[in-house]
Description:
- By secondary structure, the protein is of the alpha+beta class.
- The protein has a single domain, classed as Gcn5-related N-acetyltransferase (GNAT) (Aminopeptidase).
- It has helices at about 15-30, 40-45, 90-105, 120-125, and strands spanning about 5, 50-55, 60-65, 75-80, 110-115, 130, 145-150.
- Strands 1-2-3-4-5-7-6 form a seven-stranded mixed sheet, with helices on both faces.
- Helix 3 (about 90-105) links the parallel strand 4 (about 75-80) and strand 5.
- The mean pLDDT is about 95.
- InterPro entries: Acyl_CoA_acyltransferase, Bact_Acetyltransf, GNAT_dom.
- Keywords: Acyltransferase, Transferase.
- Pfam families: Acetyltransf_1.
- This is GNAT family N-acetyltransferase.
Amino acid sequence: MPTVIRPEPPRQPDLEELLRLSDEFAFSLYPAESCYLLDVAELERPGVTVFAARVDGRALGIAALVLGASGEAELKRMFVHEDARGQGLARQLLGAVEEVATAAGVAELRLETGPLQHAAIALYERAGYVRIPNFGPYAGDPYSVCYAKPLPQAAPTS
């Protein structure tokens, strides 16, 4: 099964279905006020790149890179359909996001997940992310766990 991961517009029925499933999953674990999910309109904003992971054309994973005004970046909406878990799609999505962030000159990629998402935490830690104090809207939320990873910087050309 060929897997293709690439940036795509989020307003597509199959990607919107992944977002719906992601919402359902998050709301099954955490109170609504602790679910920091970007909706389709927010994912269409400038500075946001949405990645789709497709296997034989079927959208089975999604992730978004949100670039901030000061050069910071955050991973958002990482989700893999339950039919495709355990096949490395999340790792591939994470790699694609990191590659684009690195090319954009991002020095550190940050993310927020929840303490009950053990598989996600294990994935991030295996990928080199380290726990950091909760930042921004996540500060003080006991249902948030934040991570960051420094990204390689391009060597300056002379």
